Amino acid sequence: MTDIILNKRGAIAFDLDGTLISIEKRDYSVYCLILKKYNLKILDFETYWTLRRERQPINNILEINNQIENDFLDVYINERTKLIESKELLKLDTLFNYSIKILQQFQCNYDCYLVTSRSMKEETIHQIDQLNLNKYFSRIIITEQNKLEGYSQIPNLLLIVGDTENDIIPANKLGIESFAVSSGIRSFNFLEKLKPTYLSDSLERVLEIL
User: Fold this and answer.
1) Domain residues of the chain, as ranges?
2) pTM of the model
3) Residue 118 CA, distance from chain mean position
4) pLDDT bracket for residue 210 (50, 70, 90)
5) I need a surface site. Which of 8, 89, 161, 203 has the fewest CB within 10 A?
6) What is the CATH number of domain 11-22+94-209?
7) What is the C-alpha separation between 140 and 125, in angstroms, rounded?
8) Using CA atoms, how far apart are residues 142 and 122, in angstroms rounded to an integer?
């Protein structure tokens, strides 16, 4: 792979969940809350996250050690949708210790954008404000599903940084360099199959490459 040569007038787009902030506690807490509500057996944290990071279907995860009804998957998804972006649970998210340092350095030379896939805009804006991230971005784009549309709105986009297929596949479609990190919801091996331009276990290494 060749080095990335970035124009100082160019833009860099960052994903939020799993890239700049850790969401493991929030995601696992939602899983635990729902299964406790329905008196189902709960997987330990490590087992749950190993399966999640390999993108195991959620119904397969729910069925481990449990006999569930045919319609429980729909129940789970509905319950999860209500909980996952609630203000109380969003408080469980934490910035990675290198995130601010990296944003500060990139902000000096590039237009930085935040593109995140969330369904509750007000809660998302509140969280970003609480994490004091607003000042690092020229624009914050919140999409419910299709991040390709969000990334397409950014002028002179040169690099997409993210932790899932929802970041790397759009980068590939747009012909944009990508930097994948396995610090979030997908494993290193899973991300490698998507063929990102660069792949690391954390965003911290982006400074070494650039």
Assistant:
1) 11-22+94-209, 24-90
2) 0.89
3) 10
4) low
5) 8
6) 3.40.50.1000
7) 9
8) 10
